Amino acid sequence: MTGPERYPDDHTDGFPSPPRTVEDAEGRTIELRVYDGSDAEREALQAMYEAFDPADRAQGIPPSRPSKLRGWLDRILDEDCFNVFAWDGDDVVGHVTLVPENGTESPYELAIFVLQSHQGAGIGTALIETALGYGAEQGITQVWLTVERWNRAAVGLYEKIGFETTDAESFELEMAIRLDDQTESTG
Amino acid sequence: MKVLLGIGGSDDSIRALEQVVARTAEVGDDLTVAIVENPRSPRSREEIAERTREELDAAGVDAEIRQVEGDPGSELVDMAEREGFDEIALGGGQTSPMGKINVGSIAEFVLLNAHTSVKLVR
């Protein structure tokens, strides 16, 4: 499937760029950094997903079976994707990925996962905002996602950040945001 | 078992066609294939019918192919009830670029309205 047929008319800007250090609601120091492409960081991310509660899976991802999980990581850590990790010390505790439909000029699909131990502390909001700031820097202007309709907390979070609902006719709500292209000259 | 397979031409519906025909060949179900409207289908109705005939012939399965006009979800539910089908089978959803499963509006309508069992093929 592909993303929305229409995007919001209004642009949203002013998102912060990585790297950032934030303090979460539990007082933990969380670093938000772009994935550096190394095997070590990939292994740290895989460890987060291996510890992930299956109840927090969304529409079949992350996959549980190890071989499927590796295949999924291959896809989303590909060089045409953008990934920001949230670190608590040496552990990855949150992850936002932006995956293009069809090359870097096409709209990007967003997904976010936060480890159960670190949910409800504001890390998700900080991660998404930082990933959108990073995406805008890289020239992305259209970002979309789907979310299960009954997941009110997530829908509220996306709305607060600036996403608008573009399709409410399926099980999954489709939402989208238009970013200002930060690579263009504004002069 | 009397099975009604609804396909509109999306990739997941073609996958459902392959799997349901293979299963029919194994267990000897009574299969009807309904080709339904799908404005977003990358394949024409004729291509879908041709593909269905090839699949049936290759598996040695005899099944009726019907072109169905009108709203796909309600037509399938209506056919299944009027003609005493035991199960409606459908494609189990499309996958987004990052691998999220998305269930379409036809499947949702059929799940909520059918009095028969519904099979979503993954």
Automatic annotation (TrEMBL), chain A:
The keyword Transferase applies. Residues 1-13 have a biased composition (Basic and acidic residues). The keyword Transferase applies. Residues 1-28 are annotated as: Disordered. Gene3D superfamilies: 3.40.630.30. Residues 35-180 form the N-acetyltransferase domain. Keywords: Transferase. GO terms for molecular function: acyltransferase activity, transferring groups other than amino-acyl groups. This is Putative acetyltransferase. It comes from Halolamina pelagica.
TrEMBL record, chain B:
It comes from the Archaea. Residues 2-122 form the UspA domain. Pfam families: Usp. This is Universal stress protein family protein. It comes from Halolamina pelagica.
